[in-house]
What we know:
This protein is an alpha+beta fold. The chain folds into 2 domains: 9-191, B-lactam Antibiotic, Isopenicillin N Synthase, Chain (Jelly Rolls), CATH 2.60.120.330; 194-258, no CATH class.
Amino acid sequence: xxxxxxxxxxxxxxxxxxxxxxxxxxxxxxxxxxxxxxxxxxxxxxxxxxxxxxxxxxxxxxxxxxxxxxxxxxxxxxxxxxxxxxxxxxxxxxxxxxxxxxxxxxxxxxxxxxxxxxxxxxxxxxxxxxxxxxxxxxxxxxxxxxxxxxxxxxxxxxxxxxxxxxxxxxxxxxxxxxxxxxxxxxxxxxxxxxxxxxxxxxxxxxxxxxxxxxxxxxxxxxxxxxxxxxxxxxxxxxxxxxxxxxxxxxxxxxxxxxx
Length: 259
C-alpha cells in the first residue's frame, strides 16, 4: 500500500531508443505473432509476441488464472538486446512482458481490465515502438497520445479503447510490473515533474515574445504548428492534441465565465 495519489494516466521519466526497438521489431518473423485470446474485444488483427510468459514459453501470451506457474524470459527475448534493455531498466518484479500489435485498420473495443491500477499493487506499463499520430487511444473517454520511446502508466481498471485507422501497425512493448519501493519512487518522480506542455505553457506566461507570436496567429492549425515549433526550440516536445485540448479548455472556461 502507498499514500501516493496517482492519476489514471502518467508518463514516466524514462526514454528508450525507438529506432533500435523498431529495428529489432522489423527482424521478427511473421510466425512469432500470436492472435490475442480476447477475440470478442477487437476487430481486425490484434496479436502479440511474448517476451516473458508463463514458464518462459514462446507463443504463450495468455496468463495462468490459477497463479501456480511463474513468469520467465522466453528464448526470443534472449535474441533481442534492445527489448532486454527496456526490461532491465525496471528494477522491480516483472510478470508478463509482450509486444502487442494492433494492425492497420484494426480497433479494440472499449473494455476494462481488473486489478491493474497503482492501488492494486500491479501496473501495466506501455512503451510505444511503432505508431502513427492518427492512432487514437482513449482512457475514460479522453485521448492519450503516446510517442515512440516513451513509457506510460495507464489505469486499465478504467474503460479504454484503441482505434487504428491508419496503414501503419501500432506496436507497444507492454509489461505488468509489481509496485515495490523502486516503482513507487519512479512514480513519485514523474508526478513531481511538469510535462513538456506544462513547461511550455509556463514559458508563454513568462515571455511576452511568445504571447505576441501566438496571439497574432488566428488560424487554429497555424496556431498549433507554431506552438509546437516554438516549444521544440525550447526543448518542449508535445503533440497537436495537447494544443487542441488546451484550446478546448480555454473555450470551456470562457463559456462558463461569460455565457
